[in-house]
Amino acid sequence: MKENLKNIGYGLAGGAIVLIVSMLFSLGNNSDNTGDNSSEARMNVQPQVNAPVYQTAFASVPQDVDFVDAADKTVNAVVHIRTEMTRRSSSYDDFFGSLREYLYGGPQGPGRSNTLVGFGSGVVLSDDGYIVTNNHVVEGAEKIEVTFNDRRQLKATLVGNDPTTDLALIKVEAKDLAFLVFGDSDKTKVGEWVLAVGNPFNLTSTVTAGIISAKARNINILGSGSSIESFIQTDAVINRGNSGGALVNTIGELIGINAAIASHTGVYEGYSFAIPSNIVRKVADDIIRFGEPQRAYLGVEIREMTKELAEETGQDLIKGVYIANVTDNGGAQEAGLRSGDVIRKVNESEVNSLSQLLEVIGQHRPGDKVKVEVFSKNRLKSFDVTLKNQTGTTELVKREERFVNETLGVSLEKVSANDRKTLGIMHGLKIAELNEGVMKRGGISKGFIITSVNGQKVNSKSELESALGNQNGQTTRIQGVYPNGMKISFEFIN
After folding, report:
1. What is the Cα–Cα distance from 170 to 185, expressed in whole angstroms?
2. 445 is catalytic
3. Closest CA to 183 of 306, 41, 319, 38
4. Residue range 314-367, pLDDT digits in tens
5. Strands in 329-409 per DSSP E
6. Is 364 designated active site?
């Protein structure tokens, strides 16, 4: 497929986030190497010759393709998500607001807080209330409310999130909920029929049908070099509010979480994108087991293969990804991979682009071993590579359990690796719950990260207690940062 792009941008399908894109697709030969070479899909329905079809706005559906069972399995496991967050109307008030609220007991004057409301969808993963959605649906939310297909409404809490995959896990207190089972997104095929299910209008779940148009799409919307973008592209209709909804196959298995649309109007125009279910399953399991995602790295810097690189490496075909550099002390270096090698496969999955490599590695944790097939010096070689974390070890990071500090009136937890990287901080304690106390009276909100107390860095319960005991006179000075990057420093009298 050849693409002539002008003013490129991609709209996130949920919340209120829509970017701008002008796209002219010329549909012809598909030579972008995004096809899947894995084993057969779970269901292969061949239309009969001259079989009647159902005409839709975007496709002609063969009559013998039945979506009824898949839809029936899915609609009750897809929920509507409503979020609320507070945004101040001026940066000046952001800076002085804490002092004003401490003195006067609430927002004052023209800089008062405004409540922003956002909407999206989510997919129930377990009968006891774990729900996966997009990170951009719940990011920064102070209140999360879930509405089920039967109109029940429950409050939800954020369990954990992963901005690098745009996924988040929330939880409601409930039992015996309808939920979806995971399918194997690696086995999906281009041309396979799929259903997109979302609950964008807080009515009941909406179902649309389409086919998988492409796989391993990188559309550059997550804004980080370490982000995993390897979307399933589909032409099933998805609009604003569908972010976090389900993409399922014809037997009702979850194969993706809908995340974005390609549009220059803000509404659906033919292409949408979903996060593969194998990534979703791994991230959700990490958050439940460890409190935060466990990111594994191969330890290489790569370049997309070109005709010139293929000739340089002695390949007849433009296949694989080229290793431009091998990271010191990384798993690839220790296994024997070298600059100039060409990665062809990882664990029997063909790799022909950066997004494909990120997707297959993203399904593993530090310490896992993968089999890497490379083309080196005119022959194929196989290496067993032990994946490592970003610091070059195989250790898994577990979020410290929450603890309460009565002096400040807060429940705190250690800052996640993702927050540290995003905010450019090395340490800190995040406010998970805000109770009555000096922090609340000072106007500090849930989510604020305390980085130092009385000039002493804090990264644990013991360090915080030590810093609070190290008082300078009768005041305590606290410094920190909000998730949006705004830094705050204030003092209170003991």
Report:
1. 22
2. no
3. 41
4. 988 899 999 999 999 999 999 999 999 999 999 989 999 999 999 999 999 999
5. 342-346, 349-350, 369-376, 379-386, 403-405
6. no
Average pLDDT for residues 92-118, to the nearest whole number?
50
Task: Give the length of the chain.
Answer: 494
| Chosen CATH of 300-386 out of 2.30.42.10, 1.50.10.10, 3.40.50.300, 3.55.50.30 | 2.30.42.10
Place of tokens 């399922």: 248
For residue 140, the one-letter residue type is G
Rounded to a whole number of angstroms, the CA Rg of the chain reads 25
The residue from 243, 272, 376, 416 that is catalytic is 243
For the question of residue 32 being annotated catalytic, the response is: no
User: Per the confidence metrics, is the pTM higher than 0.90?
Assistant: no
Catalytic residue, from 121, 136, 213, 230: name it: 136
Asked, colleague to colleague, whether 1-24+53-291 and 300-386 share their fold, the answer is no
Token reading at 9: 């941008």
Query: Nearest-CA neighbor of 327 among 298, 365, 354?
Result: 298
Token pair belonging to 459: 């990264």
Give the residue among 475, 476, 473, 474 at the shortest CA–CA distance from 450.
Answer: 476
